[in-house]
Write a structure and sequence with these properties.
Strands 1, 2, 4 and 5 form a 4-stranded antiparallel sheet that branches. Strands 3-12-11 form a 3-stranded antiparallel sheet, with no helix packed on it. It has a 3-stranded antiparallel sheet with strand order 6-10-13, with helices on one face. The longest helix has 24 residues. It is built from 4 helices and 15 strands. It is globular and about 45 Å long. It is an alpha+beta fold. The model has no long low-confidence stretch (mean pLDDT 97). A hairpin with a 2-residue loop joins strand 4 and strand 5.
């Protein structure tokens, strides 16, 4: 069942999203060679506490961290570790913020030092695919329009779109209906209505979209060891178009 949100409730989620976005902006200068993803985890955990919000991921189904930290060929759900980032890496930091019972969710991929042209192009295409999907998130469209926009653009650039990890509704719970696929057929799927709040979070790979899960039960890696990137926003469907609740100032 899809839970519709009032504008007052959307505003409460936007306040959570503003804190989350500010944390991502701080990470732009924090993430660099020789920093570990465990350093990033501690930075985020401390930052959120100082802002009076809580990291919703910590403890979710036994997940022990405030962040997911996914490096290079990790698609999603990577554990923070003591291993140092090196120049040329890309790392995706995903977090969910709880402010007064309302949630916001956003992932961002960051270059570490000087990255390859291949990595830079992947980041650019993935981010562009996210915004093309968001453009389709308007009253009267269907979720298939969102997925089709992402898939056709990414595949047109020679990349693959991850199938098994999807976006979702969000509100007081991290995962609500509906499921938001990042591939699909235009004109198909759930019709978008005012008051829906969703995450759109395409994961785009240089090679195959096939993957495997490591022994920790969480970390998903590309089957061919090639790079993966992800960008994610929480958005509300409004009569005036999609409202990005986790928007960073300079987007």
């Amino acid at each position: 069942m899809i839970t519709m949100k009032s504008m007052e409730e959307i505003k409460a989620m936007q306040e959570a999203g503003e804190v989350l976005a500010s944390c991502h902006k701080e990470l732009r200068s924090f993430i660099k060679p020789d920093v570990t993803t465990l350093d990033i985890e501690h930075f985020v955990d401390d930052y959120l506490k100082k802002q009076g919000v809580t990291p919703e991921q910590k403890g979710y189904r036994g997940y022990p961290f405030a962040t997911c930290a996914s490096i290079n060929d990790v698609i999603c759900h990577g554990f923070p570790t003591k291993n140092k980032l090196v120049s040329g890496d890309i790392v995706t930091i995903d977090m969910v913020v709880n402010r007064n019972g309302w949630l916001a969710d956003s992932a961002w991929s960051y270059p570490v030092g000087d990255i390859s042209e291949e990595a830079a192009q992947l980041l650019q295409v993935t981010k562009e695919a996210l915004y093309l999907g968001i453009e389709q998130a308007v009253v009267g469209n269907r979720l298939g329009d969102v997925g089709h926009a992402i898939q056709s653009y990414a595949e047109g650039k020679g990349y693959s779109v991850v199938r098994d990890f999807t976006g979702h509704g969000i509100g007081r719970l991290m995962h609500e209906d509906p499921e938001v696929l990042h591939f699909g057929t235009a004109g198909r799927g759930v019709r978008l209505k005012e008051g829906m709040v969703l995450t759109i979070e395409p994961m785009i790979n240089v090679g195959t979209y096939d993957y495997y899960i490591e022994d920790d039960g969480w970390t998903a890696r590309t089957a061919d060891g090639k790079l993966s990137a992800q960008y994610e926003h929480t958005i509300a469907i409004t009569k005036d178009g999609p409202l990005i609740l986790t928007k960073q100032d300079d987007e």
